[in-house]
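To whoever is on call:

I kicked off a structure prediction for a single chain this morning and the downstream step that reads the tokens threw a length-mismatch warning. I double-checked the sequence; it's 434 residues and nothing unusual in it as far as I can see. Pasting both halves so you can look.
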Amino acid sequence: MRKACALTSDGPGLWGLTAAPAPDCPVLTGACHARIAVIGAGYTGLSAALQLARAGAEVAVIEADMPGAGAAGRNVGLVNAGLWLMPQELIARAGPVHGPRLLDCLGTAPAEVWQIIARERIDCEATPNGTLHCAANTAGAAALKARADQWRARGTDVRLLDQRATALRTGSAAFSAALFDPRAGTIQPLAYARGLARAAQAQGAQIYGHSPVTMLSPVPDGWRMHTPQGDLTAEKVILATDTFMTAPIRDLACEQVILPYFNFATDPLPPELLTSILPGREGAWDTRKLLTSFRLDADGRLIIGSVGQLGRLDGAVHRAWAVRQMVRLFPQLREVPLRTGWWGEIGTTSDALPRLHQPAPGLFSVSGYNGRGIAPGTVFGRLLAELCLGQITHAEMPLPVTRASPAILRRLRGLTLRGGSAALHATRARGWLT
């Protein structure tokens, strides 16, 4: 068992303390060449690199930090099917051609994650025991029933649990119902990213760390990526930086509104408490708009999170809320302290759908997972690799190619989300709202 020390961080927090060390990723120096370059070493970029390397393509990944250092290493670790949208709404927004295709693609995405973990022997606390979407009120229960009906109409074996079954599965009396999805589960998200990186390297991919791309320019045989100490040329480039998109492609960087999300974790709970709290080790979250997520890690730590950033002013507010919420859900944890805190960024799009772009010939990008990055990122990384290799065409992708469209009032809306979550958590932490 690896014990976490007290820490509040804008880095990976608990995940950085319990994951295996990052693989060796040298700084890019001098002039290098690859057939296909990937910018960004999160789930999308690393999945693409693994697929490309397994196909025998010469591939190089350029990362500004180290694999998993961004959102990939800071999230809750829920491996979910689909998107936040209900199935029928997803189809209505994506259209009659791409809607069913996207829903089918993301519905089977967790299975692809579990298959990669098994095939590559990635040690990332993979727990494919399903997830529980918990009804916080009557409206939430009705929404879960509608979601269950829509998934079951498509042949998916999701199950709607009543209050008693929900209490047994969660260990909490706070919910009136829950939707159990057996396709889903939990992982140690940073360990998964680092495992993908090691697997890609084992297949021959070159991964360069601490090498931010400062300029991306066309050359006769493809593209040149400039970094502080070197440059890389490639025939094709996959842009896989999502919310961390910077100078090379400005429009892509401004397309999403940033939603901060934090987590706190306890020390490992004693066995007598673990028998009653999430005994099946499912990941869980509730139906509130300002949701609460909760799960256990492999060592029995309870991890609880919600919308917000752990900054100098709002960090204490969110910690106080997390303590109160943990005790409200699990009164038996009244004397259990929260030890480790961290936060990351979720990129949200205007219609809650991902985006597929080709800004120029030989440049490809998918972004905007809206809080569902692990399984969709894994699948879309593979699809981008297949697109670059000519194994599939644009017409076969589950998303249409669109032009980037900067979000209106992006920064203001992001600040509003951060401030609003802090204000609401402050009132709830003081007991003014339940």
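Update from on-call: the warning came from a stale cache, not from the record. Cleared it. Sanity check on the structure: Residues 81 and 107 are 5 Å apart (CA to CA).
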